[in-house]
Amino acid sequence: MDKAQVASMLEEIASLLALKADSNVFEQRAYENAARALNSLDGDLTQLVEQKKLKGTPGLGATLIKRVEEAVQEGHIAILNELRANTPAVKLEMMRIPGVGPKKINAMYDELHPKSIADLEQACKDDKVAKIPGFGKKTQEKILQGIAFLQQHADRFRFDVAFTEAERIRAALATLPEIVRLEVAGSLRRRRETVKDIDMVVSVSDGAGQDEREKIMTFFTSQPGILSITGKGLTKSSVVLASGIAMDLRVVSDSQFPSTLHHFTGSREHHIPLRRRAQNMGMTINDYGLFKISDGSEELIPCHEESDIYAALNLEYIAPELREDTGEIEAAAQHKLPKLVEQSDMRGILHAHSTYSDGQRTIREMVDACIERGYSYLGLSDHSKAAAYAGGLSEDDVRRQWEEIDRLNAELKGRFRILKGIECDILKDGTLDFENDLLAGFDFVIVSIHSNFNLTPEEQTRRMLRAIANPYTSIIAHPTGRLLLGRAGYTLDMEAVVDAAAREGVCIEINAHPSRLDLDWRLVRKGREKGLKVPIGPDAHTTEGLDDVFYGIGIARKGWLSAEDVPNTLEADELLRFFQEQRERRLKQSSVAH
Questions:
Q1: 297, 310, 219, 208: which is closest to 255 by C-alpha?
Q2: Within a 10 A sphere around the Cβ of 479, how many other Cβ atoms?
Q3: Tens-digit pLDDT profile for residues 511-570
Q4: Distance of alpha carbon 330 from its chain centroid, rounded?
Q5: In which region does residue 246 sit, left (phi positive, over 0), alpha (psi from -120 to 50) or beta (all else)?
Q6: CATH topology of domain 266-337
Q7: How many CA atoms are closer than 13 Å to the CA of 276, on its beta-carbon side?
Q8: Which CATH architecture has domain 420-593?
Q9: Residue of 495, 449, 443, 452 lying closest to 474 (CA atoms)
Q10: pTM of the prediction?
Q11: Is the peptide bond prior to 267 cis by the omega test (within 30 degrees of 0)?
């Protein structure tokens, strides 16, 4: 259990307490405060628990510390399980509707007595929800939209939630001497932004017997954090984790491992044309291996690695992230696959916040954390004044921050560089929150939408295009505003936005926060084909948030990006030159246009 998972459990406890008839508002707030306190902590939570270092943390009293310890050590919190069991099932379902909180849930439950989400949906269609005191037509319509969103994303989990669960169990299984090879498969291995379940494949030596397989399966099904066992055998076992994610473990002999891993990595869409290619070459491929068909019989083609499967089909190795049937097989046949960007290519951070706005760490603390992670620069980008809810900076605040950055850069003497950036709000009409004469003082300017989400698609698109046209705009952040499994984001013509950004030489980031992963990987691919540059920004508000770059790398790879497509793979001087040339070129174009 990591901090985000445990904090989410504490937040859920607070919500479930609020649903109770005799709810205690102070108890709810205690859990909410504990969740916030946990998210702001530095360091590995497991280590902090083991070393008893949570005592004295503001917001974490003795009882709350026990809850956190229970989550880390047992994989669950008993009071949370109890609250879930004692809360009507329909209320638990209603909690998943975006934008619907405990107060509204209780009001709808008490007035309408729905037995299911379908009942609630029908009540909205019958205009009954609008008539509940304090609701109205607009609220009813939003609930209907939320139900539609919920139905569209039913039974899916964010990548980071599933990845954390998979890594915990993978690390445990890796301690077993009987296991030869071990890999996560499925959509998780392909780095999809949300997943339905977890697939894992392990191998044992070809001569291994029943005892070895049975030991592995018993170990797997007895791991902490398993809610139920839905199947147990010598080749496959299935469980449901406490998070609700279903997980399958398959055990195969080592000679079968590459084919089984390849098969269960998917995608189905990738496998269909791959099998067709194999058939055209007189071969057949399945989860047991690659076979040459001759005189009606099948001869196994030995493959020790997945790359051997592709090589036998006269293809370059296709990385798991690309296996979505978006042209990867054709590119592999022509040896035209890109060398995908890797974590080791990243030289610095772009898009991070400090205590000047809504970040939880000082500039110096963020710098030290970057140095510790091997980065050579930090592109600071606190919020502009319109984001008052996030402590947005006034013009005077900006100048004060610049002075601190200058002092710190002088102290660092070239060992590390802090770049002067801003996350500047795009206002309703598409103008930027600061005047151009102030924007000119920044090394780079990130622009983003944080308000007026309900404009028409045409208005929202015009708004974004006007922001792109400003010559001081360097990067567009989280361009659709989506929150995975939380909200769809505002509606705009992203094809037109990508086209305009590529044409104007403006970057669009992959916001690497796992709740966003925005720009979507499908649009990343389209942008790359048009020459769009795509920085990876963690949108870090804590030092640990810097590590979200990992999630952004996955989306960049799914979007076929190489290091040269990602500006923050450049060294600091090269990046500053990139931004300077970008601005000068656009200012020149702007003056010619006028």
A1: 208
A2: 26
A3: 999 999 999 999 999 999 999 999 999 999 999 999 999 999 999 999 999 999 999 999
A4: 29
A5: beta
A6: Beta Polymerase; domain 3 (3.30.210)
A7: 9
A8: Alpha-Beta Barrel (3.20)
A9: 443
A10: 0.85
A11: yes
